[in-house]
Amino acid sequence: MIEKTFGEAVAEGRKVLRLSQKEFAARVLKEDGTSITPQYLNDIEHDRRSPTTDHMIEALARALNQEPDYFFLLAGKINPEDVRQAAAAGPVRANEAMRAFRKVLSGTGKR
After folding, report:
1. Paired strand residues for 35
2. Would you say residue 1 has pLDDT above 50?
3. Which domains does the chain have, with CATH numbers?
């Protein structure tokens, strides 16, 4: 099974929008309201850097006109902040949620 990396997904989404790295970088805003640099975007797209905050993952997804959950998964952050807080209810609840998640992804209903 071939897996897509975070960078590949960002690059693919940007190309679907027919934007250059410079144009796309201008649409991705950091927490301080400034745009990311084209070099930072290039590093992300080539998997040399990873977004370090939930905000950046969400900003990239928004700029791609996509839901952020898929990008959280690709970034290795299965749980955005709201899910992490809900999982704090304890291991039983967190394990139930992960089993349900796997069931949906597998399509088999067995895990």
Report:
1. 29
2. no
3. 1-78 (1.10.260.40), 80-111 (no CATH)
Q: Is 110:104 a contact under the CB 8 Å cutoff?
A: no
Provide the 8-state DSSP code for 50.
-
At residue 75's C-alpha, the angle toward residues 81 and 86, to 5°, is 20
Q: What is the pLDDT of residues 40-64, one digit of tens each?
A: 999 999 999 998 898 999 999 999 9
**Rounded Cα distance, 74 and 76, in Å:** 5
pLDDT band at 27 (very low <50, low <70, confident <90, very high): very high
